[in-house]
Amino acid sequence: MKRGLKTLLLFGLAFFVWAPLWMMVTGSFMGKDEIYEFVGPVLEQREGMAGWSLLPKYPTLRAYIELLIDSPKFFAMFWNTCYQVAPILIGQICIAVPAAWAFARYRFKGKKALFLLYITLMVLPFQVTMVSSYLVLLKLDIIDTHLSIILPNIFSAFPVFILTKFFRVIPESLLEAARLDGASEGYIFLSLGVPMGAPGIFSVVILGFIEYWNSIEQPLTFLAKRKDLWPLSLYLQGITTDRTSVAFVASAVMLAPALLLFLGGQKYLEQGIAASGIKG
């Protein structure tokens, strides 16, 4: 009896989690009239009850054709997102991996204070550093360019924090054995540290991709005068209520890369979350 109640409760919770996703997918195959039939009272703010159908009554690909073939702005924003996210992730790996290795494996003066500064920077929300970051980027004359999004995020403290946790679990005896065999510090880092820290690097890439693929506040702040450089995450706000089916398709297309990356690297993502101590 108790087991049955638990199963029923879990199915109920799963329904609330999956319902928005199911609405997005089924709504992407509905026509404009069918969507208005279900959510018209909400969109037009009139009296009546909104509802939803388990499956589309008249499935159509019209919204997909309208978005993927007749919306050049969508592809421009898609490539803007790729142009911003890829350099950020590559730059983070180039900066964070050696920095984390130094924090994890070497002793130097001021190490604890410097790492505490990293953690402090990591926990500061964007709103706190927004004005100072804007002034620095304005002084560098890169406001309203892709660099205003790429450059600050390359030096994010979060990847350093996660990778330091991963590198610390590498046995010191293994590194000492390599040194006794005549291996240089650079060889140890590249041949032992990076391969053994690969799960942490993958988790940093996955977490970073999800964060920057869905970034909204930074593009709105640093690209305010250049809407032609806006990423895909800001596409939905320009869609009017008469194109709700297109909004569902845009949401599904935007979700696809992050979902595929999550499913492919779920194991590494769990390790990264466990290492950082993040709790849901």
How many angstroms does the end-to-end distance come to? 29 Å
Written as H for each helix and E for each strand, in order along the chain, the element string is HHHHHHHHHHHHHH
The whole-angstrom Rg is: 23 Å
**Which structural class should the secondary elements be placed in?**
mainly alpha
Largest sheet: none
Number of strands: 0
Which ranges are low-confidence, i.e. pLDDT below 50, for 5 or more consecutive residues? none
Please tell me the overall pLDDT.
84
Strand portion: under 5%
Q: Report the helical percentage.
A: over 70%
Number of H- or I-type helical stretches: 14
Give the overall silhouette.
globular
Protein traits:
mainly alpha; 0% strand
Structural description of this entry:
The chain has helices at residues 2-27, 32-43, 62-68, 72-105, 111-123, 126-139, 147-154, 158-168, 172-180, 185-196, 198-213, 217-222, 244-264, 266-276. By secondary structure, the chain is an all-alpha fold. α11 (198-213) packs across α14 (266-276). The longest helix has 34 residues, at 72-105. It is globular and about 75 Å long. The two termini are 29 Å apart. The mean pLDDT is 84.
